[in-house]
Write a structure and sequence with these properties.
heterodimer; A: alpha/beta; D-Maltodextrin-Binding Protein, domain 2; 2 domains; 6-stranded mixed β-sheet; 4-stranded mixed β-sheet; 17 helices; about 50% helix; disordered N terminus; B: mainly alpha; MetI-like fold; two-stranded antiparallel ribbon; 14 helices; globular
C-alpha cells in the first residue's frame, strides 16, 4: 500500500493545480453589474484620490469635513497620478472596487460609463446641484443624459509670461496671431528664446499647442469631431493647423525635445525663455519670489470669425456601480458638490482652479479672476486632448507632434501616420 | 493497475517520503500560479482585442497580422536588434577586455575593478538620472564640448532621433561592462595556470595564447555571459523608459517599451500581449539555438 499516498498526493496536487489555474483566470468578459439598490454595507466608504502631494491637503480637509458631519465614514487613499491613471480600469472592473474616485470629465469618464461601470449620480444632481451651469451638467452626462460625474473645479490654460521680463523686452501681451508672431520675432532678436516646452518627459504638453491652434483655426465643433474620430488627422483642416504651427516653430527653444518640464520651467523662471503655454496647475512651480510677477494672456486669436473656444479641463468625482455603499457614496458626493466643501477644496489648491459650484466662496487672485473671466466669455469650452479624445490617443498625438517639431518638412508622412495610428488605437482598444 | 503492478515491487524501495513531494509540489504550484499560468494567459490574451474595460473580443491572429504592418513595431524590432548587437557586443568585448587587463593581482588593480563594478550598485533608474543630467542640452557633455572648442558637436543628445538611442546604449553599457567583467574575471580565475605556462614555454605569442588557450577554456563562461547579455538586452526597459520613454517619436522604442506603452497607455492589452509573445519567442530562439550549439560542441570535444 505504500504507493497509495503517492498517487493520492499526485491527484491532490493535480486538483489543487487545476482549481488554482481556474481561479487565476483573467476575467476578460463583460463586467456590467446591476444597479446598486437597497441597504449599504457597513464600513467606511473608500475614496481613491489621484492627487499629488501638493493637492492632497484640500482633499484631506474635504474628507475630514464630511466625517465630522457624522453621516458616515470616508477613508481617503491618495495615489500618485500616473499609477492612479493606469490602475483605474483595474479598480473599476474588479469584483470589490473602491467606491468613489477623483477623475476627469469628458470622454475619459464616458469611456467607463459606456461599459456600465459608473454609478448613476442623477439623484445627486437633482438634490442640490441645480445652480451648476448647464455646460457642466452636460459635461457630466453620458450620451443618454444620465449624470455620472460630479464636478469640483476647472482651470484655464494661457500663455504665461513674467510682467517684468516683458517690460525689459519691450513687449505688450499680444491678442492676435500676427501680433504674437511679431512679439516672438522681437523677443528672439534680443537673444531670448520666445517660447519653451519641456517635452522630454512631458511630451503631452505639445498637445496644448495643437488643441489651441485647432480651436482658433477650425473652431471647437470641428476640434471635438476630430478628437472623437469623425474627422481625420490627415485632412486639409489639420494641415492648416500645422501650417500655422510651423510659423512658431523657429521661436521655440531649439532643445525642447531634450528638455524636461522642470528644466523648461526653470529656464522660464530665469528669463531664458519668455513664454510658456501652460495650465493653471503649473503656477505653484514658479519660484515664490516671482509668483507676483507671473501673468498670462489668452491664446492669440487667429481667425476672428471662429467663435472663441477655450480649454477648461474639469476635475471631479465618479463612483463605481459596484459600490456596496451607494447611499453613502451619494451622500458624500452631495457634500462634495456643496458650496462649503468646494470652498474648502479650492482653498487647498493654491488658486489654480475655479470651483464648479457657483455659490462656492473663493478668493480669486488676479490670475484666477482673469482665468474665470476668460472662460466665462468663451463661446465653447473643451477639456484637453486626452480628456476629449480618450487617454489612449495621447500616444499617437505625442509621436506626431514631437516628430513635427523635429522634422516639420515631413508633415505629409506625419499626418498620414498619425491618422493610421489613431485608427489602430481605436480599433485595438 | 495492471500496468503499474509490474514495476511496483522494484520501485517500492525507492519511493521518497511524502514530504519530498510536498517540497516539490508547493514551489511548483506557486510557480505555476504566479509565473506559468499568467504567461500562458498572456499567450491567450494575444488572440483577443481587449482594453481592460469592455468585454474582450476574439480576433484570432489579427494582432499578429497587424504587428507586421505596424511601423512602430518595426522600428522597435530594428532598435532591439541594434540594442542586442551594440549593447550585447560591446559589453561582451569590453567586459572580456577589462577582465583580461585586470585579472592579475597587481597593486592598485582593485581600485580599477571597483570603479568598473561600482555602477552596478546603482539602480537603473538612478543610472538613468545621472546620464540624463550628463546628456542634457546644457549638461556636462555639451558644456565640456563647448569648453574644448568642439561647440559644433553639441546637440540635444536625448532629444535628437539620430543620437537618442546611442546615448541610451552608452548609459546602459556603463553599467553592463562592469557586470560582464566580474563574470569573466571569475572565469579566468578558474583556468589552470599550467596550461598557459606550457603555451608560453612553447613560444606562443600573446594573441595566440589568448585565441588558442584562454578563450577556448572560457567556453562555459561565455555561455553564461551570452545568456545574461541577451536576456538583459531583451528585458532592457527601465533605463530607456526613465531616459526617453521610447521617444522622441518612437526613435528609442524597444520591444519592451512598446509593449509597456501599448498595454498601459494605449490600453490595447491583446495587442501588447502579442508583442510580449514575440519578445518571448525571440529570447527563447536565441538562447535555445546557442545552447544547442554549445552542447553539441561540448559533446564533440
Amino acid at each position: 500500500m505504500t504507493h497509495m499516498p503517492r498517487r493520492r498526493l499526485a491527484a491532490l496536487g493535480v486538483s489543487i493545480a487545476a482549481s488554482a489555474l481556474l481561479a487565476g483566470c483573467v476575467a476578460t468578459g463583460g463586467t456590467a453589474a446591476g444597479p446598486a439598490v437597497g441597504e449599504d454595507e457597513s464600513g467606511p466608504l473608500v475614496l481613491q484620490s489621484r492627487f499629488t502631494d501638493a493637492e492632497k491637503g484640500g482633499m484631506e480637509q474635504l474628507v475630514a469635513g464630511f466625517n465630522e458631519l457624522g453621516e458616515g465614514e470616508v477613508e481617503l487613499n491618495s495615489i500618485p497620478t500616473s499609477t492612479f491613471n493606469a490602475q483605474l480600469p483595474t479598480y473599476l472592473t474588479s469584483a470589490t472596487p473602491p467606491d468613489v474616485y477623483t477623475w476627469y470629465a469628458g470622454q475619459a469618464t464616458r469611456d467607463f460609463a459606456e461599459q456600465d461601470l459608473l454609478l448613476d449620480l442623477s439623484d445627486v444632481w437633482e438634490s442640490g446641484m441645480g445652480d451648476f451651469s448647464p455646460a457642466l451638467r452636460e459635461l457630466s452626462q453620458t450620451e443618454d443624459g444620465t449624470e455620472v460625474f460630479v464636478p469640483t473645479g476647472y482651470y484655464w490654460w494661457g500663455v504665461y509670461y513674467f510682467k517684468s521680463d516683458f517690460e525689459k523686452l519691450g513687449i505688450e501681451p499680444p491678442t492676435t496671431w500676427d501680433e504674437f508672431l511679431a512679439a516672438c520675432d522681437q523677443i528672439k532678436s534680443q537673444g531670448v528664446n520666445p517660447l519653451t516646452m519641456g517635452l522630454s518627459d512631458n511630451a503631452w504638453l505639445a498637445s496644448a499647442w495643437f488643441d489651441y491652434l485647432d480651436l482658433r483655426i477650425n473652431g471647437g465643433d470641428y476640434h471635438l469631431d476630430l478628437l472623437s474620430g469623425d474627422e481625420s488627422f490627415d485632412s486639409p483642416e489639420v494641415r492648416a493647423v500645422f501650417d500655422e504651427f510651423a510659423k512658431v516653430l523657429p521661436f521655440f527653444d531649439p532643445a525642447v525635445l531634450g528638455t524636461s518640464h522642470n528644466q523648461a520651467m526653470s529656464d522660464f523662471a530665469q528669463g531664458k525663455s519668455a513664454m510658456y503655454l501652460l495650465g493653471a496647475w503649473a503656477q505653484p512651480s514658479v519660484p515664490e519670489d516671482r509668483r507676483d510677477d507671473l501673468a498670462f494672456f489668452q491664446f492669440p486669436i487667429i481667425d476672428p470669425d471662429v467663435p472663441v473656444a477655450e480649454e477648461a479641463p474639469t476635475d471631479g468625482f465618479i463612483a463605481s456601480v459596484k459600490s456596496t455603499r451607494p447611499q453613502l457614496a451619494k451622500r458624500f458626493l452631495e457634500y462634495v458638490a456643496s458650496a462649503e466643501a468646494q470652498s474648502m477644496l479650492m482653498k487647498g489648491q493654491q488658486g489654480t482652479a475655479l470651483a464648479a459650484n457657483p455659490e462656492a466662496e473663493q478668493t480669486l487672485d488676479e490670475l484666477a479672476s482673469q482665468g474665470k473671466e476668460m472662460l466665462e466669455s468663451a463661446a465653447q469650452v473643451t477639456q484637453f486632448f486626452n480628456r476629449d479624445a480618450g487617454d489612449a490617443l495621447q500616444g499617437p498625438a505625442d509621436a506626431a507632434l514631437t516628430q513635427f517639431i523635429a522634422q516639420p518638412e515631413n508633415i505629409d508622412a506625419i499626418l498620414e501616420e498619425w491618422q493610421a495610428a489613431a485608427e489602430r488605437v481605436r480599433a485595438g482598444s | 493497475m495492471t500496468i503499474t503492478a509490474l514495476p511496483r515491487d522494484r520501485r517500492r524501495a525507492k519511493v521518497p517520503p511524502p514530504i519530498v513531494f510536498a517540497f516539490v509540489l508547493i514551489p511548483f504550484l506557486i510557480e505555476a500560479v504566479g509565473v506559468f499560468w499568467p504567461a500562458i494567459q498572456g499567450v491567450g490574451l494575444s488572440f483577443l482585442r481587449w482594453n481592460g474595460i469592455a468585454p474582450a473580443e476574439p480576433v484570432g491572429i489579427g494582432n499578429y497580422v497587424d504587428l507586421m504592418s505596424d511601423p512602430i513595431f518595426l522600428t522597435a524590432i530594428r532598435n532591439t536588434a541594434i540594442w542586442i548587437v551594440l549593447f550585447g557586443g560591446i559589453s561582451f568585448v569590453a567586459g572580456l577586455g577589462v577582465a583580461l587587463l585586470f585579472q592579475s593581482e597587481r597593486r592598485g588593480v582593485g581600485v580599477y575593478r571597483t570603479a568598473l563594478f561600482l555602477p552596478i550598485v546603482f539602480s537603473l533608474v538612478v543610472t538613468a538620472l545621472i546620464w540624463t543630467a550628463f546628456f542634457q542640452p546644457s549638461g556636462v557633455l555639451n558644456t565640456f564640448l563647448q569648453s574644448v572648442g568642439l561647440g559644433d558637436l553639441t546637440r540635444v543628445w536625448l532629444g535628437d532621433p539620430d543620437t537618442a538611442l546611442y546615448a541610451v546604449i552608452v548609459a546602459a553599457l556603463w553599467r553592463e561592462i562592469g557586470y560582464v567583467m566580474v563574470l569573466f574575471i571569475a572565469g579566468l580565475k578558474g583556468l589552470d595556470p599550467s596550461v598557459m605556462e606550457a603555451a608560453r614555454v612553447d613560444g606562443a605569442t600573446r594573441w595566440q595564447r589568448f585565441r588558442l588557450v584562454t578563450f577556448p577554456q572560457l567556453r562555459s563562461v561565455n555561455l553564461v555571459v551570452l545568456s545574461v547579455i541577451i536576456i538583459d538586452s531583451l528585458r532592457s526597459f527601465d533605463i530607456v523608459w526613465a531616459m526617453t520613454r521610447g521617444g522622441p517619436f518612437h526613435s528609442t522604442e524597444l520591444l519592451s517599451t512598446y509593449m509597456f506603452s501599448t498595454a498601459f497607455e494605449s490600453r490595447a492589452l491583446g495587442y501588447a500581449s502579442a508583442i510580449a509573445v514575440v519578445i518571448f519567442l525571440l529570447a527563447i530562439a536565441v538562447i535555445v539555438s546557442y545552447l544547442v550549439r554549445a552542447l553539441s560542441e561540448e559533446k564533440e570535444s
